[in-house]
Design a protein that fits this description.
single chain; five-stranded parallel sheet; alpha/beta; four-stranded mixed sheet; 206 residues; 8 helices
Length: 206
């Protein structure tokens, strides 16, 4: 009865709205969901590990993977390419494990085209534009010109909010985490994902 197909949960937001922090909190609090590991052409940031945080590849390798159809989605974001290898994701779903994606609206659209029934889309909004800029400056990992570029792009990213199944305003980190966790619990109970349910119900009605 408990057997089910896994799901893909996407968290998207403008840079600085908190999706990466919320994704980390969700993975740490729920043992059944794991982060999808993307391939990227950007350089590793301090502390990032190849194969755990990202698969760091050069542009030539990335293009080869695209040509081989190895990605569920791929996109160019701020001068770098990102893509989700499909093999590990499809294997996890078949085994009843959930996969979490920290990707933008472009990647989400591609996932929706390829695997719409497995997808749960959550968009994270900041409480205000001023707070978004404050958070970007506070993380101190980007130069001022990069912060300015991210703020300039935020409006376009936010304009895609209506393409998502759920919208969460991250004005309080713990409250936002609780809401996303509740969404995950509810989505796991969908009839279409409980692949062992049919036989169980038949046993009740025999």
């Amino acid at each position: 009865m408990e057997k089910r197909r896994g799901l893909m949960m996407v968290l998207s937001s403008p840079s600085g709205a908190g999706k990466s922090t919320l994704a980390k909190m969700l993975v740490e609090s729920d043992p059944v969901i794991a982060m999808s590991v993307s391939a990227t052409t950007r350089m590793p940031r301090p502390g990032e590990i190849d194969g755990k945080d990202y698969y760091f590849v050069n542009a030539l390798k990335f293009e080869s993977m695209v040509g081989d159809g190895a990605f569920l989605e791929h996109a160019k974001v701020f001068d770098h390419h990102y893509g989700t290898p499909k093999g590990p994701v499809e294997g996890a779903l078949a085994q009843g494990h959930d996969v979490l994606f920290d990707i933008d609206w472009q990647g989400t659209q591609q996932l929706a085209q390829k695997m719409p029934h497995d997808l749960v889309r959550v968009f994270i909004l900041p409480p205000s534009r001023d707070e978004l800029e404050r958070r970007l400056k506070a993380r101190a990992s980007d130069a001022p010109d990069v912060v300015a570029r991210r703020m300039a792009k935020a409006g376009d990213e936010i304009s895609h909010w209506a393409e998502y199944d759920y919208v969460v305003v991250n004005d309080d980190l713990n409250a936002a985490h609780a809401k996303i966790s509740a969404i995950l619990v509810a989505e796991r109970q969908k009839r279409t994902r409980q692949i062992g349910l049919h036989g169980f119900v038949e046993s009740l009605t025999a």
